[in-house]
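Predict the holo structure. Ligand: NAP.
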Amino acid sequence: MLQPLFADRICAVVAAPTAAGMLRQLARALKRARTVELRLDWLRSRQEIFRLLAALARRRLRTTWIATCRRRVAGGRFAGSPAVQLELLRRAVAAGCRWCDVEIETAAQLGAADLRRRLAPARCLISFHDFAGTPPRLTALCARLDRAGGHAIKLAARCDRLRDGLRQLALARHRRRVVAVPMGERALPLRVLALREGSALAYAAVGEATAPGQLTLEEMRQLYRADRLDRHTRVYGVIGDPVVHSLSPLLHNTGFRVRRINAVYLPFRVPADAGRASLRDFLAAVPALNLRGFSVTIPHKERILDYLDGCDPLAEQIGAVNTVVVRGPGWLYGYNTDYVGVLRALDSRSVGLAGCRVLIYGAGGAARAVAFALARAGARVAICARRLEPARRLARAVGGEVIPRPRLAREFFDAIVNATPVGMHPRVRESPLAVHELNCRIVFDLIYRPMRTKLLQMAARRGIEAISGVEMFVAQGVAQWEIWMGERAPEGRMREAVLAALRREQNR
Ligand code: NAP
């Protein structure tokens, strides 16, 4: 078997304006990584660079350091000439850096032989960056990078479509000595999967991210366990927008870790667009990603139905799907576990539903699951939404009534359920309803992040029982996990992980 280029393929990126800041980050990086990139171009002056290199030269660590002094022309911060850049890299090599990352713009100017000679004994990673998009002809691009005479090549290009990111990963699969770095928020799952495809490295931030979509070292190592993924790893994910702050990856990956299952769960940002191009781009990538299943969240729960090959009768009746199983190549089957989630959440608080009058605010995918669950449990359902037509449709489907917003102040309900994203992280100061509209015994906010939303705080101040969406979140996620895995989920550990993350956030 061939030796990997780097013993540790997760590379911690250390980047700060001062040497002291870099050294602090380095200390943090060394707890979790044995390959570290030093972004010399982030240091604010040459004195700071010299200070850092002097401190490094005094250390004898068994870490692979990669020195980078990226020029502005390639998206870095270094404003000097290629000659000065090379001189600084040479000093970094003298201080112990075993690799230098040199952008193609500089490498092409110097020539292959000269570059290798001047940076020896360090090895050269010849890199290409495109922050606007993925170039059309990657094979020709790689040939150009090869000619620059380095020991490995790196391609870092933005991808706004998964299709483009997959082309980058295909390079890593078919070539040796390649680092593939798909950039941008939509490429986040591909950054994790790059290692599985054979990329020699994946970068992770210790401080501020140095490239769009870069994950933190902790996320890469602990949450996604990117360096442990292999060709047998089963891939799952969540599609939605926003999705980057979702705790579903933590919930599901905790389950995989506890049960020692070779699987990973990743967030795929799929924005809503009129032509549904993003959703189609994701669905087209399902076979190439070897995706076995995915969760569906805001705003795709209803529209995903148009792309399914089959559906659980209850989900079909609800008209919303939050769980998809990939049963064969391109064969998608949908379920709705929000339905179970809402009943379990209310059950856990001993909320009796039969005969109760419940208002649901919102008429989207989650509202539909809640309305069906409550109606079947014997509650009288009322719907209020900013658009009348979806509210009417949902009320008709569950035999409920529509309440126009101005009437809320004059009505009384046993419970009010918020099924809109208003108040969700990061817009935590917003509330979907005003205080005088909360005439009820219980307020149930489907939002779980934050745990205590503005709406719940307002309710508690009025002496109303406040229920967070977190119990429903755990219950619907556990049901998904069990559908995909076909075994009991370690529910307690999964809940613990989510609650701990939410508490940490609350105390920040
Ligand atoms: P969705 O299908 O996109 O529906 C969102 C609903 O909220 C729609 O009726 C939408 O109205 C309405 N809405 C959006 N912005 C609004 C605003 N500014 N003012 C008033 N109404 C607004 O989303 P979803 O999947 O149902 O999710 C809704 C919320 O429930 C999200 O916050 C989600 O995180 C949460 N949820 C939680 C759980 C859990 O397990 N705890 C499970 C599912 C969902 P328009 O149609 O007019 O846009």
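The mean pLDDT is 94. The pocket of NAP is lined by residues 297-299, 301, 338, 341, 362-367, 385-387, 390, 419-422, 424, 432, 446-448, 469, 472-473, 476 (CB under 6 Å).
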